[in-house]
Amino acid sequence: DNDHDTITFPGKWRLKDTLYGVDLARALGVEANLGKAAARAFRRLVEGGYGEHNESKIVDVLGAKRPTRA
Question: Which of helix, strand or coil describes residue 22?
């Protein structure tokens, strides 16, 4: 099921939180490769026009060659 209408946590907030974690890791001198990859993925979600959708929409965005706007 590709239903992402039930919003428990918008993708734009997940991007914000992920970037906080990456910035904190950088400040502590820690590599955050997984966090950086997650930030790229959620940035793609937000830039694709899905920032207000539930964060689970990332599955569709990453599975699509070019996400279409909702």
Answer: helix
pLDDT tens per residue, range 5-46:
677 899 999 999 999 999 999 999 999 999 999 999 999 999
- Measured distance CA(36)–CA(41) in Å, rounded: 9
> Residue 69: what pLDDT?
59
Q: How far apart are CA 59 and CA 45, in angstroms?
A: 10
pLDDT at 3 over 70: no
Tokens of 44: 């793609």
Check if the beta carbon of residue 6 is closer than 8 Å to that of residue 62. Answer: no
Asked whether 57 and 4 are in contact (CB, 8 A), the reply is yes
CB-CB neighbours of 27 under 10 Å: 8
